[in-house]
Amino acid sequence: MVTITLSEFKQLAEYIKANYGINLQEEKQALVTGRLHAVLEEQGITNFSDYLKYLAADRTGTAVRTLIDKITTNHTFFMREVEHFNFFRDKVLPQLAGLKHKDLRVWSAGCSSGEEPYTLAMLIDEFFGTEKQKWDTKVLATDISGKVLEIAKRGVYSSDVLTALPANWRLNYFTRLDSEYSTLSEKIKQEVIFRQFNLMEPTFPFKRRFHVIFCRNVMIYFDNATKHQLVRKLYDLTEPGGYLFIGHSESLNREETSYKYIMPAVYRKDEV
Predict the structure, then answer these.
(1) What is the pLDDT averaged over residues 203-229?
(2) Catalytic residue list
(3) How far apart are CA 28 and CA 111, in angstroms?
(4) From 3.40.190.150, 1.10.155.10, 1.25.40.890, 3.40.430.10, which CATH number describes the 6-71 domain?
(5) Residue in 241, 243, 248, 240 with CA at minimum distance from that of residue 265
(6) Is 72 exposed, middle or buried (0-12, 13-18, 19+ CB in 10 A)?
(7) Non-local CB neighbours of 127 within 8 Å, separated by 6+ positions
(8) What is the pLDDT of residues 132-151, one digit of tens each?
(9) What's the CA gap between 83 and 247, in Å, rounded?
(10) Model confidence pTM above 0.70
């Protein structure tokens, strides 16, 4: 296996942090080597210094996409941190049901393999019922990894991971493909718009602000300065009275953010 020197690791870590915000500590050196070994072998690269040159020289974007797919951790599951979904269902949706223009804008940032945005779509569908046809309620779901987005778009999940969902959801929103896998209904798939997006982009391309932003278990990979910068952007993209959900292992410095604390890992932007 190709090994990485401390100097090479620091160069690679600096590149990743500068472009993607991910803060790789030195204890991740072996993990990075293991995940990228096959890439170097496939390209006939014998050391990480040459790999860095390969990244810099590639103009197709393929090398960088492969790097991101390898180093990002895409661990999620249905109903993860279920208190958030209950709060969204019981408090947020009834509040937003009074919107004058019937245009509900929800963003799942760092959506991974799709469980989070699909759960939000099912909650919205169940909440609005027959009234839903009068609303635009599509969920925007973004992730930095193109590979994981392809998995999310398929909407196919092993039956054992669906046990966390309510029985009526499994019945109404899923179809068994075989003894092991089930697929989401087209009705729910069409409610989620998947896009590849890097949260470190200097400017965000969204023309309108969101009523709800889920950005959970993403900022744990960032240092404080990067996190603070991202939270400011998210705040600017939140509608007055809108909500930000982060992971339970994350927190915002209340002295540095304009968001108001509501409950663990839930924050709100003041109404005008």
Answers:
(1) 93
(2) 35, 143
(3) 23
(4) 1.10.155.10
(5) 248
(6) buried
(7) 89, 93, 97
(8) 999 999 999 999 999 999 99
(9) 11
(10) yes
